[in-house]
Amino acid sequence: QPVGLYPHARRVGDLLFLSGVGPRARGSKEIPGVKLDEQGNILSYDIVTQCHSVFQNVRYILEDAGSGWEQIVDVTVFLTNMKADFAAFNRVYAEYFRDHQPCRTTVEVNALPTPIAIELKVIAVMP
Question: Fewer Cβ within 10 Å of end Cβ, the chain: N or C?
């Protein structure tokens, strides 16, 4: 469920553009790997758990739109703590993209719209 007025994905010609995808559990507000205080601020998080969750969400969106994992051609990664999380993210990323390697850009951002540590922006080809 997007947190604003935008689609999860939009097809333009043979390309599928995914809006920013976070690790929130599909169909709920639960964020795997995150512990929040009473005000909704992050107390702690597990970047590995969030990475697995965000990759699963990307897979759901691609498949719902008629595309697939092997069709990904470009990934933009937004991390809120590059220094602490980049190495772990790279290890998990390698599990998912060992044989299929799209272009990738990784940037650090100050914050994301929900209390998450990672968000992906993906472009895929429609088969």
Answer: N
Residue 4 lies in a domain: no
Q: Does the residue 23 lie in any domain? A: yes
Of 5, 16, 8, 10, give the one whose Cα is nearest residue 119: 8
CATH number at residue 79: 3.30.1330.40
Beta strands in the chain (DSSP E): 9-12, 15-21, 34-36, 42-45, 72-79, 103-108, 118-125
Is 68 a member of any domain? yes
Residue 3 belongs to some domain of the structure: no
For residue 74, give the nearest of 104, 46, 114 by alpha carbon.
Answer: 104
> Which residues form the domain of 15?
9-125
Number of domains in the chain: 1
Name the nearest CA neighbour of 106 among 91, 124, 120: 120
**10-residue averages of pLDDT along the chain (127 residues):** 74 97 91 92 95 98 97 99 98 96 98 94 97
